[in-house]
Amino acid sequence: MLIKKLRLQKGWSQEQLADISGLSARTIQRLERGENASLETLKSLASVFEINVAELSEHYLLHTKEDPIMQPDTQLTYDEAKAIEKVKEIKGLYIHLIIFCLVISALWVLNMMTSPNVIWAWWPTFGWGIGVAGHAIGVLDLPFLFGAEWEKKQIEKRLGRKL
After folding, report:
1. Which end of the chain has fewer surrounding CB within 10 Å, N or C?
2. How confident is the model at residue 68 (pLDDT cuts 50, 70, 90)?
C-alpha cells in the first residue's frame, strides 16, 4: 500500500508512475496489491519518489506471502534479503534452462522423425540458446563479464573520481 499512497500523494495514475519509473503498469498494479518486487524495481521507485530504497524494501522485498522462508514477523537484514532475491533469480535461470532442454530435445526428435535430410532444429536451438546465455550472464556473477569490478570502474569513470 505504500507505493499506492506515495503515487496518490503525487497525483499520478498507475500509467504515469509506470512511465516515470520505466516499469510496466502491470508491475505497478502487482506492487499495489502487495506482491513482491525485485531490488532493481524498488531502486527505480525509490528514485522516482525520492526516498531511501530501504523504506520500500521493508514492505515489498523483506516480507513475502509466498515464501515460507520469510514470514511477516521476520526481520531480515539487507544482505539476507539480497541473497534471497539472488536465489530466486538463479532458480528462474534453472527453470529456463530445464524448459529449454526439454523443448529443444523435442524439436530435434521431431526434426529427425519428419525431415532428417533438412536440419531445421539448429535455428531454434541457436536463437533460444542466445536467450538462455543472456539470462545466465544477467543472473550469474561472472567476474570476467560485467562483474563488480567492471561496475566499479564504470561508476568511477562517470564520477571522474575513485569511490
Report:
1. C
2. very low
Place of cell 529449454: 100
> 129-140: per-residue pLDDT in tens?
999 999 998 888
Find the mean pLDDT for residues 110-121.
96
Residue 115, C-beta contacts closer than 8 angstroms, at least 6 positions apart? none
Q: Which three cell numbers stand for residue 82?
A: 539480497
The residue ranking higher by pLDDT, 61 or 89, is 89
Contact 72, 63 (CB under 8 A): yes
How do the residues of the chain divide into helix, strand and coil, expressed in percent and rounded to 5?
70, 0, 30
- How far apart are the C-alpha atoms of 44 and 4, rounded to whole Å? 15
Asked if residues 125 and 104 have their Cβ atoms less than 8 Å apart, the reply is: yes
For the entire predicted model, the pTM comes to 0.48
For residue 111, pLDDT beyond 80: yes
Q: Which residues contact 145 (CB under 8 A, 6 or more apart)?
A: 137
Helical axes 25-32 vs 2-10, angle rounded to 10°: 120
* Cβ proximity of 109 and 102 under 8 Å: no
Residue 93 DSSP label:
H
Distance CA 75, CA 54 (A): 13
